[in-house]
Design a protein that fits this description.
Length: 133
């Protein structure tokens, strides 16, 4: 019996227009290696019969953008897997978002530093979102 713990396809933001709108209108928090873009409800399109609040409550979506200067394809795909796994395991940090975009733009030497930076950026946004509400 195979047990899959990967992020479901329904949780991935795949539509190019939605990704472009998210990058343009989302709230950015930057670090040394990456920028995390938090997308509020109403920016991405929703399916008929769904409300923006349902998307936020049930399943925020994710996309990971990795620039070519981050390394060869093996390294870029590894960074995508790390970002998706972080998103899957830390759903509580993304409350109130309809979607999250990880934009990785610098070459990463140490994966632990990269993971710590992702966590610190998301915690910074989470605490500011909690205090702002």
């Amino acid at each position: 019996m195979k047990c899959s713990v990967k992020l479901p396809r329904a949780r991935m933001l795949k539509v190019r227009a939605d990704i472009s709108r998210s990058v343009k209108y989302g709230q950015r928090v930057s670090g040394k290696y990456l920028t995390v873009i938090f997308v509020s409800p109403g920016i991405i399109r929703i399916k008929p019969g769904e409300s923006a609040e349902e998307i936020v409550r049930n399943q925020p979506k994710l996309t990971v953008l990795v620039r070519k200067k981050c390394g060869c394809s093996v390294k870029r795909n590894r960074l995508k897997r790390i970002a998706r796994e972080f998103f899957r395991l830390n759903q509580d940090l993304f409350g109130g978002c309809a979607a999250v975009v990880f934009d990785i733009y610098n070459s990463i030497d140490d994966e632990n530093c990269f993971k710590n930076e992702m966590e610190s950026i998301c915690r910074k946004h989470y605490t500011s979102a909690k205090s702002g509400s």
